[in-house]
Amino acid sequence: MAFGKSPCERGRLNCRSVWPFLLFFWCVSRIVSGQIRYAIPEELKKGSVIGNVAQDLGLDVQRLRSGRARIVTRQSIQYTELKTDKGVLVVNERIDREQLCGDVTPCSFSFEVILENPMELHPVKVMIQDQNDNPPQVLYPVQTGGSLVAEMMPRSADVGYLVTKVVAVDVDSGQNAWLSYKLQKATDRALFEVGLQNGEIRTIRQVTDKDAVKQRLTVIVEDNGQPSRSATVIVNVAVADSFPEVLSEFTDFTQDKEYNDNLTFYLVLALAVVSFLFITCLVVIISVKIYRWRQSRVMYHSNLPVIPYYPPRYSDTLGTGTLQHVYNYEVCRTTDSRKSDCKFGIAGSQNVLIMDPSSTGTMQRIQSEKSILDEPDSPLEVRKIM
Questions:
Q1: 56: Cβ–Cβ under 8 A, 6 or more apart, which residues?
Q2: Phi/psi at 124 (5° precision)
Q3: pTM score, two decimals?
């Protein structure tokens, strides 16, 4: 019998392998404090207060500052921010419950608030409450833009005949995802009804010969949120026993009314633009024609005086008697210009004004009667009159 052995040796345990684990758990228990939880609605604005971390953890704001408190999260997006100057936790990013958790309920995310000197770790869990921020989505019947989708129903259908079923979903959770179906409009409201909870469309009476082949139903799908959101679905029903009969009756359903209205609007707009451009061009052309006609009339009836032209070197300089009396001119003609039909005119300066330097303002007019054509023929003559 052995005496003086420790409990680890009596239990055949390795004390060296146990002590590290005990030390780890002891350190964790000293660091990790109590966990706090918050519940907030989704879609809160950025900067909205989630809770007072300093007060809920029993810490002083000075401790948050000196400990350099910060948030550590395992998510790619940091939805919250810690304001160490006030000790409050605020929303840092938009929180969408459907994007964060999908169909998982309840929805939450967690993070840790860490302080230094001494080291402290405070887990925080934030629960996200669903809000009715999504309308119902209709899965069936599929809503198409221009093509027509119709459900077939025979004329021999009995009361309670299942024509079709409207299928819709809501991505919200809880009561916000509860859906109800109501018949808003119908070609004949006395022929069909819609199940309030399941969206089934059934007949409530027998089909007669007076009932139209084309039946159009408008069903509204509403959720149970506050405020309630809804979606509208149009169901076309063909009451016929044969497929050719359906084709003959539905030939005028090829276009949607809204599409026709848009097409008419664009056609009218195009016609208005073309008409405006045509009228504008016509007015501009007429205005230009009138302007040119008025200009020609003004020039034709103009009574402006004719200003005589004096050749250079003929101008008197302020009546001082220094009128130039030397004029040079050139006459070009052929050798036999007397017999030629091509003759150049007489020099424009046959009348020469001569001023007597000794007189004050008296001028004599000398007529030069001698013609240039009387001179001997020569290819080129240059004359100078003094």
A1: 36
A2: -130, 135
A3: 0.54
